[in-house]
Amino acid sequence: MRLRLVPQETNFDFFKYAKVTFGASCLAMVASIAIWLMVGLNFGIDFLGGTTIRTDATVEVDVADYRAALEDLDLGDVVISRVFDPNFDEDQYVVTVRIQAQEGVEAVTPETIEAIETALLANVDSEMTFPSVESVGPKVSGELIQTAIIAVLASLGAILVYIWLRFEWQFSVGAVAALIHDVILTIGVFSLFQIRFDLATIAALLTIVGYSINDTVVIFDRLRENLIKYKQRALRDVMNLSANETLSRTLMTSGTTALALIALLVLGGDVIRGFVFAILWGVIVGTYSSIYVAKNVVLMLGVKRDWSKPSDGGGASGTQFANIDA
Amino acid sequence: MLQIPLWNRLFIILVILAGLSFAFPNFFYERVERHNDAVAEMEREGLETEELLAEEALWPGALPATLVNLGLDLRGGAHLLAEVRVEDVYVARMDALWPEVRDALREVRDTVGTIRRIDADPGLLQVRISQPEGMSAALEAVRALGQPVVSLTGGIGESTLDVSGSGDVLTVRLSDAEAAATNDRTMQQSIEIVRRRVDEAGTREPTIQRQGADRILIQVPGIGSAQELKDLIGTTARLTFHPVVGRAATADEDVESRQIVLPSIDPDDAGTFYILEETPVVSGDDLVDSQPSFDQQSGLPVVTFRFNPSGARAFGEYTAANVGAPFAIVLDGEVISAPVIRQAITGGAGQISGNFTVESSTELAILLRAGALPAEMTFLEERTIGPELGADSIEAGQIAAMVAFAAVLLFMILAYGTFGVFASIALVLNVGLIFGVLSLIGATLTLPGIAGIVLTIGMAVDANVLVFERIREELKTAKGPARAIELGYERALSAIIDANITTFIIATILFVLGSGPVRGFSVTLGIGIVTSVFTAIYVTRLLIVFWFERRRPKKIEV
Fold first, then answer.
1. A50-89 pLDDT, tens per residue?
2. A253/B459 CB distance under 8 A
């Protein structure tokens, strides 16, 4: 007896509700952007500049106590958040204190950090420890934002070109549309739940891009094969056939990846939870988008049908590498 | 049919064995680490103490002792990003240049008239001359002070100085080529000093590297806090020259006020202490250059040095007045040597002879040049991670990886039966290979790196899934299971390659643009892609072929 996520033969019509799914995707993207613009991302110090101090206390946390202890220091915007994790000991209470970049100071002042630590030790818990202190100056954080944006754009561009070389330009537009969809939805979720958005999240975003494209390419690859095989069938049918043929694989791979990530999400500790959450979310939307977004875009754009001959004119570059099986 | 040539099989097995043997020391992390430390120390110090030998014996020398480096977030430690204010050096250079400019202009006093230095922006030297019509002569005189730029990259033959005149004001600045060369030197010097300071503290494997044009990244595992690290770096290496009052046997010798007792580090002089005047004659601030060299008479290695004009004057006056008396060369509170002044040293240049070898003279010259930080540093980023947090992260990561592993294995075996077992074996080998490669190239494992490995555990089965699903499909049409397996591998290949190349592109971009932990993630992701394709295409296939050759099944179920 084998575990089957889908029946051996499937015949789903993935375009039956194309308007609904595609509309839902568009709506979700619009909603994500709206939330992003209205609520904003909860930027970490990597992008905002400032200092985060992680405190580890032995007494029950009352955020108000922390706030009161720090009030006199005149630090500007202070964000105090409680951290929960199943790995913690019973009497371990962890909080992160985030302080905005202090005005007019490029470098970080150790005096401020010391003042905060002293205030917390005196007013909250004398046995408190500070497992990590991180400060980023505004100059660096500005550059980090820039690098992050470049990284995301560069990876989208690189994929656009690669898919274009291996397939056709319609495919690369479809793939990149799916990627943008995934990235925007992830940003939306991060805005909605106010999950901290830092450098690691950018790495997660790029991983999502990598994962999602992986999924999309597998379907495209099958589509190319079937387009050669069934020259007369309608593009829509060939697409459905390809998606059905690869459906079992799509769900198996997403399933194992999601399993591994859930284990990490629950047990991997709070330090990388945001990072892991982003990737897990990306796996889910990435799987969805390769079935429902990438193909729809290719269908809308139409695609060359005869793959046996090299195409003429401008399309030539689209297939010159297509027969290379590295 | 299903065939893999013998040499191919051997090669696959060899790669796996090599990978696993490099990965294997990581199971005994602490022992191997102590062994490696002991070996490194014995090599560096050239001596073998019993203690070190005992540490070394913790791990057999014949076995590989490669380990994955643990990143700061896993080991705990401090991270600093410092910006060096390279412009500081321009200012110092211009100040040092002023006496020379003054002297040069005085020689052409008849045409340029009187001269006066006026206030200017930092890095500029501006001189007002009373006879503007003599500007061209002034320019010529000052330009003659420039020297060809010495640098590996800069334009050859370009002058170090950029001299221009407008009205009655003459402006001198460093030429672009010289500024670039100066920046390079400043950065090298700063890094050298930082490295020396950090090494002094004896911490393990610090990372000190230049980042961009004017930044230094400093990562020191195991240090208590970023503040501690800053204190360490902030101490300037001070070179001073003191008059010697006498010698002492102990450090607590009673001395008069404004006198100090300092130990000697000269091996010939071990155990002696010098009583010195507290006020130095000259200090390293006045040093402009120092080079390793050889004594012209004896041919022994020496270190030459050169003072700036004010240092040269002070030194000249002192040595002229004290011929025959010893003076002490002191570095950071320790007497390097205490030679006797043989003659007045008036040119501002001199040499330190001691018990030098070629290496030690080179080292001292570097230290002297690197004496004090050439320019101020500001800290743009600092992070402290406590060792407990790192240990917790490792533990959590390990547990999560185990659970993820078990879940994926179970899932694969349930879905593909015997073939799932093959994929599972390949997955275990895959993780082994990842660690093997990480250890071999000395990569650093960070917390996101662990996440990268867990992600790879999930994704690595993808290539296998692609093949197995394809075999299932081929079984419906192909003649016989052997053909189906062969076709399955053949036809799934292009999808596997395309899917993994795109992910690899992403890993590369992350590596190039990312820093710190993100880079650690990209490394494990990239290596994971390569090893997972290898295990899926070669290892699982080999396992299936072995199995197939033994059983010769008429029918297979995937």
1. 888 898 888 887 888 888 888 888 777 888 888 888 878 8
2. yes
- Cα(B55)–Cα(A247) distance, integer angstroms: 56
Can you say whether the dihedral through the CA atoms of B318, B320, B326, B329 is positive or negative?
positive
Match 């206030």 to its residue by tokens.
B119
Q: What CATH fold (topology level) applies to the domain A51-136?
A: Alpha-Beta Plaits (3.30.70)
What pLDDT is recorded for position B445?
86
CA distances from A198 to A211, A275, B346, B517 (A): 20, 9, 60, 12
pLDDT value of position B60: 85
CB < 8 Å from A in window 207-236 of B: 225-227, 230
What amino acid occupies position B64? P
Helix ranges (DSSP H) in B324-386: 358-369
Residue B63 CB partners (closer than 8 Å, separation 6+): B24, B25
Determine if the pTM surpasses 0.80. Answer: no
Q: Is B273 helix (H, G, I), strand (E, B) or coil?
A: strand
Euclidean distance between CA atoms B378 and B368, whole angstroms? 23
Residues of chain A with CATH 3.30.70.380: 51-136
ipTM, 2 dp: 0.80
Backbone region of residue A123 per phi and psi (left: phi > 0; alpha: psi in -120 to 50; beta: other values) = alpha
* Mutate: best of B377, B501, B502, partner A, most A CBs <10 A: B502
According to DSSP, residue B22 is labeled: H
Query: What pLDDT is stored for residue A308 in this prediction?
Result: 60
**Cα within 13 Å of Cα(A216), Cβ side:** 39
**Would the CB atoms of B458 and A151 count as touching at under 8 Å?**
no
Please enumerate in sequence order all residues whose Cβ is within 8 A of that of A157, keeping only pairs 6 or more positions apart, or say none. none
Q: Which tokens in the block code for residue B291?
A: 């080079």
How many alpha carbons lie under 13 Å from residue A306 in its C-beta half-sphere? 6
pLDDT in the model for residue A325? 47
User: Residue A313 pLDDT > 50, yes or no?
Assistant: no
List, in order of start, the domains of chain B with CATH numbers: 6-23+386-551 (1.20.1640.10), 87-180 (3.30.1360), 240-356 (3.30.1360.200)
Contact list in B for residue A263 (CB cut-off 8 A) is 400-401, 403-404, 407, 454
Per-residue DSSP letter, B341? P
Tokens of A35: 């939330």
> What stretches in chain B show pLDDT beneath 50?
1, 154
Q: How confident is the model at residue A318 (pLDDT cuts 50, 70, 90)?
A: very low
Strand partners, A323: none
A54, A130, A214 ranked by CB distance to B499: nearest: A214
| Chain B partners within 8 Å of A112 (Cβ) | none
- Asked if B184 and B214 count as a contact pair (C-beta separation under 8 A), the reply is no
Residues in chain B: 558
pLDDT digits (tens, 9 = 90+) for A127-137: 888 888 888 88
Q: Which CATH class is domain A18-42+141-305?
A: mainly alpha
What is the enclosing helix (H) or strand (E) of B294?
strand B287-294
